[in-house]
Each structure stands twice: as C-alpha cells, then as structure tokens.
Model the fold of this input.
Amino acid sequence: MTSTERAIAPDAADEAIKAVPLRHPGRWVGAAIVLLLLALFVYGAATNGNYHWDTYRSYLFDKRISTGAWNTLQLTFWAMVLGVVLGVVIAVMRLTPNPVLKAAAWGYLWVFRGTPVYVQLVFWGLFPSLYPHLNFGLPFVHQFAHANIQHVSAFFLFAALGLGLNESAYMAEIVRAGITSVPEGQTEAATALGMPWGLTMRRIVLPQAMRVIIPPTGNEVISMLKTTSLVTAVPYSLDLYGQQADISGVLFRPVPLLLVASTWYLAITSLLMIGQYFLEKRFARGATRHLTARQLRAAARAEVGFQSERGAR
Amino acid sequence: MTAPATTGPMVLADRVGKSFGSLRVLNGITLEVARGEVLAIVGPSGSGKSTFLRCINHLEQVNSGRLYVDGVLVGYAEKGDRLHELHPKLAARQRREIGMVFQHFNLFGHMTALENVTEAPIRVNKRRKDDAVEAARKLLDRVGLADKERSYPAQLSGGQQQRVAIARALAMEPKLMLFDEPTSALDPELVGEVLDVMRQLAVDGMTMIVVTHEMGFAREVCDQLVFMDAGVVVESGRPADVLSNPQRERTKAFLSKVL
Done:
C-alpha cells in the first residue's frame, strides 16, 4: 500500500491518532539525580547526632513553644489589622485632592519604608525613656488622664505597634495600586445611578480592587508572621522565636529548637496559604469568562427542564 | 429654586457653557427637550456632545448658563441671586431620576447581570430585595436577556452587556434617559439588538437624549436632531429635514462624510 492510498483510506481521519510517544531520557536522569541527593540529605540528617532529634521530638509540642506560637499569631494578627486599617487611610489620603494630606501621607511612607523595621522596633522599646509620661487631653490646655508607661509592661503593645506602623506603609501602596486598578467607568456608572461616594467605594470600587489587593496582602501576612521574630529588638521574648531561644539558651542545643520553631512557622504558613487560596477565589468573581460551577449547574438544570418540557409535548 | 413642573420641558438648556481649564468645550448651548421627546445629538468628535450629555446629570459641572431638568436647576442651588454649589448628596439625589448608558457599558464587573440591575434600587432607593429582583427580572426579560441573569459581564457579548446596562438604568425608574454613543463600541451585527431596545423605549414614551452616529436610527426614531460642532449648536430641527436638507455648510460637510 502506498502512502497516497493510506491518506485517502476512508476512516483514517475519524480515528484518534495512536502514535509512539516521544521518550524523554533527560528528564528521567534529572529526576533520579535530584531524588538521590534528597535521599542522601535525609539519611545524613537522620543519622547525624548533632541534630539531636530526640530533643526536637520532646520540645516540638512543649507548652512554652505552643504558647509562643500563639503569641506570634496574635502579634501577626494585630500588626496586620493595624497595617491594613492605617494603610487604607494613608492610601485614601494619597488619592485625595488635598495637598497637605497628600504630602503628610508621602512623608509617612518615606520615613517608615526608608528605615529598617529592626531599628523601628528598637525605637519602640525606647519609647518609655523618650516619653516617660503620657498625658491625654487638649495640648497646653487641659489633661484629663496620665499614664506612667515605664511601669507598664507594654512590650507586646510596642511590638505590635512597631510592626503595624511599618506594615501600614507597605499596605498603603498595595491598597492604592488596587484602587487605581479599577477603571474610572465603574465609579462613573455608580455615580450616574445616584450612588454617593462612600457607597460607590464600598460596593463597587473596593470589591474589585480586592482582586488586586488580596494576593500581595497574603504575602504580607506570611512575611509578617516571620518578621515577628525581630521583636526581640523591643525586647519582647514571649513569641515563638523568643521562646525557643530561651529554651535553647538553657539546653545549649540551638539546632533542634530552631528546627522546632521552623516546623511551627512552616505549619502556620501552610494554613495561611490555604486561606489565601479561598479568599482569592472569592474575589475573582466575574474576572474570567469561564462559567462558575454554580452557573454550570444552573445551565444543566435549565437544559434538563427544557428537554423534559419538550418530551411532555 | 423653580418648583418641579409637570408640564414644562423635561430638559431646558439656556446658553450652557463648560470649560476644562482654558479649553472651552461648550460655548453656549440652548435647546429644549419636551416630555416624551427623543432628541438625537450628532456631530464630529470633540464637538462637545458627550460633555453636554454629562452636564445634564452633573457628571460635569456647568460653568455658565443654566441647565434645568424637569424644572429644577442642575448642579446648583439658587438662593437669592447667588448660586451655591450643590452638596454631593443632593447632586446624587438629582441623578437617581436620570438614567445614563455609556459607550463602554461600564457594567459592574464583579456582579452578575441581575445584581447589576438590582444594586442601585436596593442600595440607593432602599427597595426590598424581593421587589427589586422581581422588577429586575422583568427588565432583563424586556431587553431579551431573561436567561442571562446569572452571567457576569465578561461572559456576555457587547450587545448583551449594553442591554443589561439599559436595564440597569431603567431599574431606577428614570424620567429621562441619556445615551452616550451606546452602539459605537459594538460589532456591526450587534448594533441592531441595542437599537431595537432603544426604539421600543421611545415607543413606550420615555424622554431620551441620544448622542449617536446612527443616522438611520436618528431619522426613524428621533423627534428632534441637533448638529453640534465646536461647542455650539450649528443646526437643529426634525431629523428628516436636517439630514436630507441641511442648511449650513458645516452640517453639509459632516453629513456628506457619514451618510
């Protein structure tokens, strides 16, 4: 049979093509090398006594460690809350036509993004020696409350404040990018429908800005979780990193305890990543032309209804 | 302030002027649109058609002259012999009764077709959700999109999006509808479906101002046609008269290119 006869064989075009797959020996070799190196590393780590795996095991679920992890989570939470709220305020300030507000917001960003967070945390630790007495009231007129913060153990507060104020500078830029990413036509259409500015922001602009804001904010949360380890600068030592340092200081075994802390950081980060995935999905509504599962179900139902209607006739 | 009239013209423009910085876009527009009338505004790009339309619902602020909708001054409050800029809340209230349809649809991207239509009635007019949804379904049916209520704008064709946008504007039960080149961004074969909806709206007695390049639509549906150039009304009259027998050189030159 010649090739021409083959080509015009009647049902050749309808058949699915069954070709011999191309072999990829390079991929197999590469995978083997990586797996071998990984196995060697695991074997080496498991048999190396200096890792002190027994210490790792006995402290992995130690009460002080889990309390430290809880404190780290709280620090992360409050610092991010402060960072997001202040960040939105600063972003809106930068977008107002008022030149003084604009300049103030710019100056804030300049200072808090331009200095290391570690330095800022040390400053917060020194806050009580800079301002030993806090007075609440009208400046130069009347003070109705006094606080002597040198006697207050406020290191958690200072740590959260320091991290949060630093974070707000970064969040402000993320929020601003999100708001400016929403086309002007959206605001215009809402305005033309008689929606006031606040409602337009809340219902139309911010939900769509979220699609741009959420992914980098997720990164900021994960990054914040790890940045909390810098609060020893305040000094606040009841967080995860501080707690493991306390224990290892007594045991003289830093490696297993660093592994314990790393395990916890990794576990929490993994949970946060799952949360981020669902948040992103929630705010991606309407962003693609693909039908959602709900729409597909509705379409299927409509189709079935249509057919049964026709069948009845 | 003039009390809302029930018999006077729906829109009354008296030497309306608008500048952006030193650029004078509207140079004294005077015209009148009666209740139930459909006005077509045609003219070359940059002639100020869209700006005039945007002045009517105060998306742009008028700089000189007076503009009245249903007997009420737009964008300002007249106290004694001085004009005061209108508080944004009051301006928003004025806009509720004026529907607007944009060239690029501007549907809310994160909402389904149905949510697009119910959003303003629920949030602005404080209608009950069930009522708003029921009314929205009727409107979507009226523009021929009853089966698309769960679709997001990105899943609809341009013509479908523009019809949802018309339903969204109608949901506020406006007394006046503004159309800013509603078919200019559409594929030629989708233009008809949008014009059909607008034609039906005109038949139902809606007062409409349509900025358009669709001369066939203007001739067939509109009661009055205004030709604008360089921020002034060059010529106006019945569409058939202006289109077939233009009096001014500028109008002749423009029409010879588009007809």
Q: What stands out?
A: The mean pLDDT of chain B is 93. The interface with chain A takes residues 57, 59, 88-89, 92-100, 102, 104, 106-112, 119-120, 123-124, 147, 150-155, 165, 168-169, 172 of chain B (CB under 8 Å). The two ends of chain B are 43 Å apart (CA to CA). The CA atoms of residues 58 and 75 of chain B lie 6 Å apart.
